[in-house]
Records
---
Amino acid sequence: MKVYKAHILYTKEKSSFEVLENGYVAVGTDGRVTGVSSDLASLDCVDVEVTDFGDRLLIPAMNDLHVHAPQYRNQGIAMDLELLPWLQNYTFPEEMKYADTGYAKRMYRRFVRDLWRFGTMRACVFATIHTESSRLLMHLFQEAGLGAFVGKVGMNRNCPEGLSERVEDMVDGYESLIKEFKNPSPLNSNLSPLVLPIITPRFIPSCTPEMLRACGGLAAKFQLPVQSHLSENKDEIVWVQELEPESTCYGDAYDRYGLFGQTPTVMAHCVWTDGEELELIKRRGVVVAHCPTSNFNVASGMAPIRRFLDEGLRIGLGSDISGGHDLSIFRMMVYAIQVSKMHYQQNHECPFLSLSEAFWLATKSAGSFFGRVGSFEPGYEFDALVINDSDLNHDHYSLLERLERYIYLGDDRQIEHRFCRGKAIPEPLIN
Ligand code: GUN
Ligand code: FE
């Protein structure tokens, strides 16, 4: 049992923050919160030594629901094309390099270290088609102690030969990763593995019907989660309709292959989702990964997140490196609010996101994809950040204002400690 003292802020509900000035949170040996209170005596752990973080803020850690690890080297370049030519000209050539595990090791180490830096303790990650580079990335996450669902990418059409894999080879590669990684935590069988394969057909245009069927089959057979892209760009949507003419919407094209909520599913973007697709997402409990910087950079559009929230959809935030240029999920909250303000300009009946809504999306809402993650309520896994905002001119601000200023102005320099599933996580080595 461990007890931490600090100014504690988190969102139990999306509409407001819980704020505990000089509060305490108690964490059991299994890494789960056993209690949170302003009153130590009420936590039933009086003999336990308290780690006192003084005037610092203690908040749930960040969750990134959509990011491409092999695009990390392309971060901040190639912003001059829309999605489909962007993939062909910049993204596919970079991803082909991951046939070389030496290259993969150099890049993936930097990627994992930088996720850590920005306080992201859990992520849904795309790798590439390459089984051994994907395995390496999973080992790096395990060594770091971070939580990650990692997808070896399924692709076999409309791409360079070096990024196309035979369906049988895709299945064999997955089965070897599943054998290695899908076992319960040896120390505590109540806890699922922190690092787990996630079935990852890139998107409909990259996958033949046989590839999609095989992906759906793997998800069902091994009860694994699924991730992909959905309704990101208008040209893409037209192309999907040509490739899957019997589908009634893009989401239905996945659904026909068992890739749309039959197991826990996260779909990135949903910029143009409406009508039947929205209903299907709702019915199937599919989680939407909102990636506002990517949607700006590859000129996809602005996802209607207020509408999705009001419809009761499950939503989280994603950096979508390198369509997105920024790895910080704090910055993603700011962009999500700003996108919602642009919608508001067009329609005043569509209120923009509040800070607590954006924070809740990045923590409790996104965290639900990984289990009980993203809050400090009892039973939640203790994924947390300790923020020292003393260099952000914080005197005389309320605790909530201090958090708001950290979200808008802060970066990795103010994050002093990081915890994932109850464990303090040191900086991952890059050499
Ligand atoms: N759709 C298919 N592949 C990709 C990708 O790598 N990035 C983005 N943003 N969209 C995609
Ligand atoms: Fe993406």
---
Amino acid sequence: MSEIVLKGVPAAPGISIGPAYILDKQELIVPQREILETEIPIEIARFEEALIKTREEIAVLQKKISDDMGGQHAQIFEAHLLVLEDRTLIEDVIRQIRSTKQSAEFVFSGVLKKYVKVFSNIQDEYLRERTSDVSDIGRRVLKNLIDENKLLELDHLNGELVIIAHDLSPSDTASMFNRSILAFATDIGGRTSHTAIMAKSLGVPAVVGLKDATLRISNQDTVIVDGRMGLLIVNPAPKTLEIYKSEKSRIQELRHRFDDIKDLPATTLDGHKIDLLANLELPEEVPMIRQHGAEGIGLYRTEYFYMNRVDLPTEEEQFVAYKEVARKMAPYPVTIRTLDLGGDKFISSLQIPRDMYPFLGWRALKFCLARPDIFKMQLKAILRASVHGKIRMMYPMVSGPGELRSVNKILTEVKQGLDDDKIHYDTDMQVGVMIEVPSAVMTADLLSKEVDFFSIGTNDLIQYTLAVDRVNEQMADFYEPYHPGVLRLIKMTVDAGHKRKISVGLCGEMCSEPLQALLLIGLGVDQFSMSPVGMLQIKKMIRSVKFEDAQRLARAALKMATAREIEELCKLRLAELAPNILNPEK
Ligand code: PEP
Ligand code: MG
């Protein structure tokens, strides 16, 4: 077997080496097998046993997910159970076993295909979305019917594996939490897609946008995932393996090299302090965040709460989750971002056609304004939780003061309701906005008068400024954080915020990249919020440079014309100012 090197988009740093497991959603091929008249009851019994066994498996899986991650995540499987209990489907299979005298697996796979076809052609988007649940459950039943049941399944995995998938859904990545997954690699996705963000919070290397990796790898092939360079090496030659093994141990040794500064402030040599906060996707990450010495949570992406389930989260559920996070992080602040639905963050429990959610579609506040019932429920939960710690709240994707006023009006109504019911909340809770679209930058002077803080979301600001889809691997080379247009917008936002003396933070992926972080310090960003994994490296960088040098770098960068020149300049300066920072982990 010869070595194959596949190039993708680096999504989460680090190196992993191990056997591949293809998270395969394709159909199983079921050979035709005729049965005798006398075997009919046996086949029917086998089919019924397979259904029971599958139900048991789902129950175990549900319990595991519920224990590991909380009850609401386990509800992903409710739809699966409904399919298993569908009388029409079951009776159809039994009838056909009798009439066609074919094996249970052959009949079932035929009936299943028919169902999948019907579901995938349904007009109603919500029901169409259920197609993958139907195929998923079908595969599980088939595996319990087919003897050569040797295929690996994600929920039975106990060895350490590299997960290879066409795409990973939020429920796939969430169910990897607390598992011994070595790394993952996907055919599609860009640097800031939710899969990349999730990989970082799980602390595993990832490469996305590999185009056809799933077709070029077999289960159990040895693979190397190089999350720094965005490479997936299949069946590595002994020499390659040797190089990567020593590189991996070198990285491992380096991993703890900054642990000694965990409790020290992120202050530059000339005394300029940057607040270092963490991004949070799942409440289960809080202990890890504390371990990395974060001074709070700068972005709590609450969409994950809404995603892995078949219904909407209740106010009470949200209240309990927000309260717990706030309590565990106290006295540090927790910045809860209100629902940012849309783009790559799709919520299946709402029966809204998916094509209404593209990046320029019905997203974030536009959705919340149209569905005040859902929005109010979240605002109420946040406000109620605000007395249990230090909660700040921010709105995503604000386009300008008009939209801000509309959502603040809803906030006032919710506060009024709580006052009427004599329910306590923090009346001084800070409310900020994310600056993620160019119109918010252009109106930042106006917005700054009406909010307590800004948080720049560069993941989106870059895509909306450069007209480059952030999750499209074909566009990865055009997605330029160093673009002069992007840097100028950041500078304008900082200036507008500082003029009104409000804090300007940044919570996109840019601030976890040392070169870009140096530039951001120079541009005047006060606070970084990032995945905790790279936090100490950034702190070390901050503690190794002078603010005035970073400012000089930013001034020079703002005069340059291309992203490439700016990146080169940053590399040069960081190598001069803090040569110990650029390490193999990125
Ligand atoms: C951003 O856009 O930079 C951001 C932090 O938000 P998200 O990645 O969740 O869209
Ligand atoms: Mg965003």
